[in-house]
Design brief:
By secondary structure, the chain is mainly alpha-helical. The protein has five helices and two strands. Helices cover 68% and strands 2% of the residues. Strands 1-2 form a two-stranded antiparallel ribbon.
Length: 171
């Protein structure tokens, strides 16, 4: 309980009594538990859902980044100067290596992060999932502004319309 934290805390006003128990329950499951140590039973279901959501959001975030990088690369291509045959081959080989690395990052990284979330406390998986959702929203807004298709006012209007639609459905 509190003894572990009392030993690492410097200030007395932060310390708790030795019988203090930290509440680690959130949304119906214990964030201090490690999913890999639960065993295969119904207790694992919420942790499995969290890990699946993490893998999906991690893939979504990397997919958006890859898509936008490819778009930026096409837009920022310099004026094509005449390359020798050897330079063209070298450039093509570099581009192929970048594509392979990007594919590995897009598909393998979400699985590695999912395995990490399965091996550590559930709080870490929740943190990564929330961070991915925020990053996806931020990326979408950033690229819409960068594309000059939307202004800040249009984004505010989109968000207000989103909430207005929910209110209309409730009525």
């Amino acid at each position: 309980g509190g003894d572990y934290f009392n030993n690492i805390l410097y200030f007395d006003f932060l310390k708790h009594s030795s019988d203090y128990v930290f509440n680690t329950i959130f949304a119906g499951f214990d964030l201090a538990r490690i999913p890999s140590q639960i065993g295969v039973n119904q207790d694992l279901i919420p942790y499995g859902i969290l890990i699946a959501l993490l893998v999906i959001t991690q893939f979504g975030q990397s997919y958006l980044m890859t898509k936008q990088q490819a778009k930026q690369k096409k837009l920022n291509k310099p004026n094509a100067k005449k390359l020798t045959k050897e330079e063209e081959e070298k450039l093509k080989m570099q581009e192929d290596m970048q594509k392979m690395t990007q594919l590995q990052m897009n598909y393998l990284m979400p699985l590695v992060v999912g395995f990490g979330a399965f091996s550590f406390n559930a709080a870490l998986g929740l943190y990564w999932t929330v961070q991915n959702i925020i990053a996806i929203i931020q990326t979408v807004i950033q690229y819409r502004i960068a594309d000059k298709r939307m202004s800040v006012e249009a984004i505010k209007e989109d968000f207000s319309n989103l909430f207005n639609k929910k209110e209309k459905k409730e009525k």
